[in-house]
Amino acid sequence: MTDLSHATALLTIDVGAIVANWRRLSLLVGAAETAAVVKADCYGLGMEHVAPALFEAGARSFFVACVDEGIALRRAVPGAVIFVLSGPLGGDEGEFAAHGLIPVLNSLAQITGWAAFAKKGSGAPAAALHIDTGMNRLGLAEAELERLTAKPEVLASIRPITVMSHLACADDSDSPMNAKQLVTLRRLSAALPAMPQSIAASAGIFLGRGFHLGMVRPGAALYGLNPMQGRPNPMTQVVRLQGKIAQVRDVDSPMTVGYGATHRVEGRRRLATVVVGYADGWFRSLSNRGHGMIGGVKVPVVGRVSMDLTTFDVTDVPVEQAHPGALIDLIGPGHTVDDVAAEAGTIGYEVLTALGRRYHRRWIGTEA
Ligand SMILES: *Cc1c(COP(=O)(O)O)cnc(C)c1O
Questions:
Q1: Is 151 among the residues known to form the active site?
Q2: Which CATH number is correct for 239-364, 3.30.565.10, 3.40.1030.10, 2.40.37.10, 1.10.3210.10?
Q3: Which one of 180, 244, 259, 278 is the catalytic residue?
Q4: Is the omega angle on the peptide bond into residue 152 within 30 degrees of 0, that is, cis?
Q5: 39 an active-site residue?
Q6: What is the pLDDT of residues 14-67, one digit of tens each?
Q7: pTM score above 0.90
Q8: pLDDT tens by residue, 297-340
Q9: Distances from the Cα of 322 to the Cαs of 102, 266, 295, 327, in angstroms?
């Protein structure tokens, strides 16, 4: 049992739910491989705890953002096939080889560098090729791909095992960008040796079978975010965040609450101040907009969120449920990460990756 006596907030991460989400997607995509995107410490949920459970469940290919994350993942999951999305960034090819990391090659410069490194014959791992089809972020443009395919010896030396692209508008199933990007990837891949293709992240999986190709690359959906804008969320919730009440006070008009006195008290109210603030990733934009839950009752944020503290109006909650030391659900049943994101004016990805370092973390549902 975790000692909560000095925890300001408790973050519970349901690893069993993450595994269940991976299995659901894997079932949905049938023959396509379901990789797991575990960059940014599994979107803030703890790679060391989550990635081994996904491997145990059958996931083999993993995507991280950078070499440091790849090295950490290699330690946590020795048997993983690890793709590094940023690829080599100048002179670090040896690190890829030393830790068996597969670079995603995003530019001709990276390809040239990797080819030169592989030529030294030091057992360079295979590589993935990234073709841009509309994001204009990373990946080879069509003209660059033509220059590459004109040099079969370079292409052969980098040993590409998969070719990937990334969708710009997958969360909008009506966007014509989706089909256009898929068609472009298929057309450009035809100039390459036959190898598995990949274009779908979480949202792309739900665009239909045609998008699954050889491999899908979900991140957000594994962690419970809704991959389908405006439709019911098919994924299981993963995160519960509970903040501890430090103080409860009775107030009356004409008092105000917090910095800038932005909330005016109307009548007799009871307020509870929780030890969670914007330094914890509980965004300042939740000021006078966000809410928490106590026993199924909504408790609104009143006044500005400050660095370490947020004040809630708990007037509607029975006194015995709102006392110093009691917990308010900030994220949890009936109030998802996506809900908090909407209230904060951002996306669930940012809420997850901003989850504070001060929270006491507890991982549940890991036993096989
Ligand atoms: C982050 C990322 C993913 C995962 O995206 P989600 O929307 O979280 O599923 C997949 N592919 C690439 C290239 C990414 O950068």
A1: no
A2: 2.40.37.10
A3: 259
A4: no
A5: yes
A6: 999 999 999 999 999 999 999 999 999 999 999 999 999 999 999 999 999 999
A7: yes
A8: 999 999 999 999 999 999 999 999 999 999 999 999 899 999 99
A9: 51, 20, 10, 8
